[in-house]
Every structure is written in structure tokens, then in C-alpha cells.
Write a structure and sequence with these properties.
This protein is of the alpha/beta class and 136 residues long. It has a single domain (6-107), classed as Rossmann fold (3-Layer(aba) Sandwich), CATH 3.40.50. Helices cover 36% and strands 17% of the residues. A five-stranded parallel beta sheet has the order 2-1-3-4-5. The two termini are 26 Å apart.
Length: 136
Amino acid sequence: MNEAFSILVTDKNGHVREFLRRELHVDGYRVYTVRDGRDLLSLLEGETRLDLLILDLEIPYADESLILEQVLERRADLPVVIHTHTPEALDSGHYASALAIVEKSGDTDNLRRVVRETLQHLFPRRFASIPPSRPR
């Protein structure tokens, strides 16, 4: 039996965290959520297997300019998708280690597409054994 991909969602807004958790769960992913930088870094120091991180740079108790670096210090191989309201502000090379930057909007289709394409690219064999997500 193949295990579902594990995704960690960070967002400062509890409603957004829960919404993204539900949306990604429907697509067949195991989804964890954290509310702030302390919880994020603590979870990354544990043994939880993660395949992808969706990172809100504005989470409490995190320095927006350092949080990505702190994440990658703990889990250098963890793919990161930045989910933000202002993607144009991230054009500097400071966030180049993120695999993608996705603008927050009320519609999750773009984020879901980026997640699927990222996992498909990084884990082609494993991804091939996962059933396609349900159409919306």
C-alpha cells in the first residue's frame, strides 16, 4: 500500500489553515498545520515525515526574512512553496531556495496545481501510484 504525501501548511489565519487542510485532504494528501514560527521549527526538529511545506512568511513568532533559512537549516531537503499575499515583494534572490511562490487568493486551484506538479516532479515514481485528485 502506498502512503499519502505529507504536507505541512503554515498560515497565521486559523480559518485559512483549516480551509487549506480540507482542500488538500480532498486531493488525497495527509495534511498537518501549524500556526506560528515556534510550532513550525519545533515540528521540523521532530520525526514527522514531510514531503512539502506550504509556508506563510507572515506567521507569528517568525522573522519573515529568516524563516525560510531556518526551515532549511533543519530540513535542507524539504521542498518549500511560499504562499503569500504579495509575491512581487519576494522577487529578490533571498527566497530563491523556495520551489515556488504562489499568491494567496480565495481560489485554491493555483496552489493545488503547484503542489501537485511539485510532488509529481520530485517524486515521479511515488506520485504515479497515487490516484488522481477528484475534479471540482
